[in-house]
Design a protein that fits this description.
With 348 residues, the chain is of the alpha/beta class. The chain has 8 helices and 20 strands. A hairpin with a 4-residue loop joins strand 18 (267-269) and strand 19 (274-275).
Length: 348
């Protein structure tokens, strides 16, 4: 029997219960006898869709699921105590959707031969450091963990060469960012193993994002600060295969910043006119005049960045020439990277 609840928010269900009584599957504060009956009815009715169930006692799958099933779905459930899925062979699809695990959850030494989905689940902070999949062998085609909060460590899990592991949108409280780094590293390794190029960039980006740098690991504050800055820069420059819009934003920003610097140094047009922003008399320059002049310098910055160089403008002074060389080098590097990303997307 596949159990279905009428409404996610309602505790009423389509099971036959006496009036003024609440379904035992959804009832809170069950007695010891009701918890025994709770497990008994699951076995008796051979339930596979646990929708809105309230598990107030330990749930040990080997003790309860002694019947054949085509799939298992735990949806909008609350596990108040231990949810133990250890030493079990999953031969059919299993899903955990929008569940709350307020106690331990374990998949130790289990075998997953069918697709597994964990989506929008919440895990208690106290179990974040637990290796819940230690010794588990995953042999399915898809192992998907998305939108989970405080997802525990995935160390010890073993994937087959055919398993596509999807790890997306996991959220951690700030003290446990390093768990995110561990999990995204595991996802990156599996993506590289199966040549999942579409997700490698994403995992690399978030592995860097969750990289934790602690002050206690450095001899002085200067080293710590430099490491923080370099980590931030590395994070921002990674994963552009998945963030082309962000990449484009940085291109526009670089061009705009160099345009401002060229305004201060000045350029000479092909007609011999010198264009330069007079800082001393800045208060005499109207907004429209400033914008018109900035557009001229933005144009010069664009043709310098792109290495087109029409020759209708030349930079003034040695500092200006150094800036132009620097922007050209940045432009060449970014253009080649941009081309590689576009080609990579096309091949996908």
């Amino acid at each position: 029997m596949n159990y279905k609840e009428q409404s996610k928010k309602s505790k009423n269900c389509n099971r036959d219960v006496e009036s003024d009584y609440e379904c035992i599957f959804h009832k809170n504060n069950k007695t010891q006898r009701e918890n025994i009956l709770f497990k008994h009815y699951i076995k008796k009715e051979k339930i596979t869709h646990f929708l809105g169930f309230s598990f107030e006692d330990d749930f040990v799958i080997k003790e309860i699921l002694n019947y054949e099933y085509t799939y298992l779905k735990f949806e909008d459930c609350i596990f108040y105590k231990k949810a133990d899925f250890s030493n079990f062979i999953f031969n059919s699809k299993i899903e955990f959707l929008n569940c709350k695990f307020l106690g331990d959850i374990l998949f130790l030494n289990s075998t997953v031969n069918a697709n597994l989905v964990m989506n929008r689940n919440y895990f208690e902070e106290k179990i974040i450091n637990n290796k819940i999949f230690k010794g588990t062998n995953v042999n399915c085609q898809s192992f998907k963990l998305t939108g989970n909060t405080n997802l525990p460590r995935l160390d010890g899990i073993t994937f087959s060469k055919e398993t596509k592991f999807i790890l997306r949108d996991c959220h951690y409280i700030s003290n446990y960012n390093y768990i995110g780094k561990v999990n995204y590293t595991i996802a990156e390794i599996q993506a590289e193993k199966i040549h999942d190029d579409k997700n490698i960039g994403y995992y690399t980006y978030y592995e860097r994002k969750y990289n934790t740098i602690n002050r206690k690991d450095f001899a002085n504050y200067g080293e710590y600060l430099i490491s923080k800055i370099l980590n931030y820069v590395a994070r921002e420059l990674m994963g552009y295969g998945e963030h082309l819009s962000k990449f484009f934003f940085y291109i526009i920003s670089i061009i705009s910043i160099f345009a401002l610097l060229y305004m201060l140094i000045g350029v000479t047009t092909i007609s011999g006119q010198i264009l330069k922003l007079d800082i001393k008399n800045l208060n005499t320059v109207s907004l429209s005049q400033f914008l018109k002049m900035y557009i001229e310098f933005w144009y010069f910055s664009v043709i310098t960045f792109s290495t087109v160089g029409f020759g209708d403008m030349t930079i003034n002074g040695i500092i200006g020439k150094i800036l132009v060389c620097f922007e050209v080098l940045i432009g060449i590097t970014i253009q080649s990277t941009w081309a590689a990303l576009i080609i990579k997307r096309m091949f996908r």
